[in-house]
Amino acid sequence: MTDRNPALPRYVGQPLPRFEDLRLVRGRGRYTDDFALPDQTYAVFVRSPHTHARIRGIDTGAAKRSAGVLAVFTGADYLADGCKGIRHVPVPRHTIHHDQPAFTSTASCPVLDEPHFPLAIERVRHMGEAVAVVVAETIFAARDAAEKISVDYEPLPAVTDVREAIAPGAPLLWEAARNNIAVEGEFGDRATTETAFAAAEILIEHVFRSQRIVNSQMEPRAAIGSYDSKADTYLMIAGSQGAVRQREYLAQALNVALEHVHVVCPDVGGGFGPRSNIYAEQVVVTWAARRVGRPVRWTSDRSEAFLTDYQGRDSLAKARIALDKSGRIRALEADILFNVGGLPVSYVPLSNAPRVIAGVYDIAAAHLRVRGVMTNSAPTAPYRGAGRPEATFIIERLLDIAATRLGIDRIELRRRNLVARTQFPYRAATGINIDSGDFLANMNQALSLADWAGFAKRREHTAARGRLAGIGLANYIESPVGAPHERVQATILPEGVVEVVVGTQSTGQGHETSFAQVMADELGVAPDLIHFVTGDTRLVAVGGGSHSDRSMRFAGALMLEASHKIRDRAREAAAALLEADAASLVFKNGLYQVPGSNRSLSLFDIARAIEASGAEKLSGAEKLSGEASFTGRMPTHPTGAAICELEVDPETGAIEIVRYTSVDDVGQPINPLILHGQVHGGIAQGIGQALFEIAVHEPHTGQVLTGSFMDYALPRADTLPSFEVALAEDPTSRHPLRVKGGGESGITPSLACVMNALLHALAPLGVTDLEMPATPARVWEAIRLARGK
């Protein structure tokens, strides 16, 4: 029970402007590269120009003799110090759904979890992999010396395409990864699915490619390492998606006890998944700081980023559905290859995609096979949605293809297959258990907001201008997971501030505001009196970081629990101070009041009294505080629908998105303004992949051909329309705040609805398929070929 008074001002649900924005837009943010430690030095890495090669030798003599150079290190130096390769734990237990089998080693397919040496040992497996590092007094001296290092490489055959990588005779990256398969898993019921397909009246089968994309964050990666010889402690300053996890990775790699490592994560200019894992450069600068006896700093340039940042997507799926003549889906089957790159950093997308591939549809039987394939390319990692946008793309494209084949309206086909609210709790054939979500209402609301019914008339006007118009829809469901450990500690400070230590941290999501709204409601204080402590492992001992829609799901629930503990302790202390019965006190607007009198105490009054009187007299503690920890799943299922309307110039292939509508059930919105911003960002990233972005490797050699923004296109403000976004809520009972998660809502349906709209526009010309990104050149070529037929 809670003693909240209904008269308290309520901040949850209000679109408060973000508190942190003024600090950030005025240039008062503090990112990694803004830090400067006394007597610091500069690191430059020597990187492999080959995608696959054996290292015969490294000549560092000339570099060591260069002016201003303090040291040159190779992988041999790193190993000689007793350091180890990074163990990324690519298949962590918490990424596997609790109702599904984990990826497990078998005789035919062991799970590859080879260590990632931050400086390559004997062999490089992707272009840009670091083989040496120069530490010098200035960045210029380090760059000059790096050019003097001579590496004797023996080039080896390379492979960057997953289909070629698993073919007989393909170059093998790791002996333990037979046929270059790093991990393999099966989900669902194979026998039931095969039976359903054997009895099917209609089969729809297609191959889907989700191309590799670059994680183009605003803030380039950077890291600063230092070592305190007296205390025997390491400090690493680096923007990431979770300081606690980074500390664990770093301590393991340096082969030291956890208490000897201190990690600070300041402001971060974008995470999106790839910053959840630690990077080689972070380990090297921290280790090198001990070797040179001075702090070592490194900041990536964009050329390095295109070669070495963990990248996203890159999958190939062969999928099919079985239907009856009425359009009811009876079974779903998919075989998906995920390109995990040259080093085993993460297999998370492989475990996420099977959970949601059935979407919001009532499909009785499903069987999924997923394989992680090693190739000579930069490692892939979770990228916003991490397997869920790819899976949604598959099912929603299959539905549009089926509607065309059956001659059934696209919306009607979806209506016939939606899971109804009356079926909850609903266990999908893919294993997830859904407790809430009004899928039909979400779709109907999106149709209304997008004026789907009025599209036919708009299409006539577009045709009169010589352009092609198309409209597409995609429904979606998510299954957020994330690191299972989290902790919150809140303390009422006598000086009139609530200090909250939170294990998760922001990479731009507005935690300082939305978290404060939750605490303000529970404690009856103004949100601007709540100050958060995050991103410093000397103060934050437990925390999973920010990813997979987990921050408000985990921290929100724990903030409620911690607040209730504070109020329980404050009530007892107030009763002693006011000489009143604790049960009779009324809590209102942050005050404990004696009914029928003017006697009251604020939480801050009580905190001051506790500090003045000592712990034993009032609360049994030195401070008025409350803490809460959690280890577990906390499953929720955000859902919604998105509609894209676009126009195509058939003479040039140019595409203009004219409308985009999104309806999202993310649970109770803590701050709608922030949620809308999250959805906008996700939509932009999804449109980017659908129409613009692709990381390209040269066939056979594997050389990176998209090594800068001269070669890699991103969507810009003038290429996107204003988005029509709306929030819906079918309440969940699984979270005390009714939170489901909103960080990935915008991106999950975006690939499907954009491509559905584009192929709807091109259908009259006979174009039935296009690979992403649907660039003007690809669209123009498809139109030319269709006209030729």
Radius of gyration: 28 Å
> N-to-C terminal Cα separation, in Å?
71 Å
How many strand segments?
28
Based on Cα principal axes, name the global outline: globular
Mean pLDDT over the residues: 94
- What structural class do helix, strand and pairing data support? alpha+beta
Attribute tags:
20 helices, 24% strand, alpha+beta, disordered N terminus
Could you please describe the fold and organization of this structure?
Helix content is 28%, strand content 24%. A hairpin with a 6-residue loop joins strand 23 and strand 24. The chain has 789 residues and is α+β, with helices and mostly antiparallel strands. The longest helix is centred in the last third of the chain and has 28 residues. The strands form seven sheets. Strands 3-5-1-12-9-10-11 form a seven-stranded mixed sheet, with helices on both faces. Strands 7-15-14-13-8 form a five-stranded mixed sheet, sandwiched between helices. The protein is built from 20 helices and 28 strands.
Write the layout of secondary structure elements.
Layout: H1 21-25, E1 41-47, E2 53-59, H2 61-64, E3 69-74, H3 75-80, E4 123-124, E5 130-136, H4 139-146, E6 150-155, H5 162-165, E7 181-188, H6 190-198, E8 202-213, E9 222-228, E10 233-237, H7 243-254, E11 261-264, H8 280-292, E12 296-299, H9 302-308, E13 312-323, E14 329-341, H10 348-356, E15 365-374, H11 388-406, H12 410-417, E16 426-427, E17 433-434, H13 439-449, H14 455-464, E18 468-477, E19 485-493, E20 497-502, H15 511-523, E21 530-533, H16 551-578, E22 586-588, E23 591-593, E24 600-602, H17 603-613, E25 624-631, E26 639-648, E27 655-665, H18 672-691, E28 724-728, H19 750-762, H20 776-788
Parallel strand pairs: 1-12, 10-11, 14-15, 20-21, 27-28
Antiparallel strand pairs: 1-5, 2-4, 2-6, 3-5, 7-15, 8-13, 9-10, 9-12, 13-14, 16-17, 18-26, 19-20, 19-25, 22-23, 23-24, 26-27
Helix pairs in contact: 10-11, 11-19, 15-16, 16-17, 18-19
